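for the writeup, i need someone to sanity check this before i put it in the appendix. the sequnce is what the collaborator sent (i think, or maybe the updated version? ugh). structure was predicted straight from it, no edits. if anything looks off just tell me and ill rerun, i have time this weekend
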Amino acid sequence: MKIAYNVTTKISHEAAKDWYRWMMDHHINEVMKTDCFESFRFMQLTNIPTEDGHTFSVQYIAKSHQSLKLYTESYADKLRADVDRNFKDQYVSFRTIMNILDEG
């Protein structure tokens, strides 16, 4: 069963443009280089207030729970620290894991 590893991030208005570019040019590439995921989707939430920043979601698609476990145990801490080094105190993130039941 494929797994969606979802990272939702609220980023300040001031940092949003730089964060988006950094995510596209660096961070997502580093996550994908782990070979734990087969694809990703990068989305912006549009149905929530934006007074204190913009909210984005990146869904990384893993082939199995084992692939996701490898990522969380071997790579996640280092990559999260990289985000914090570059955007400390400018964002908040939370993560969810979902089983993909059907794909269209």
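The chain has a mean pLDDT of 96. The radius of gyration is 14 Å.
thx in advance!!
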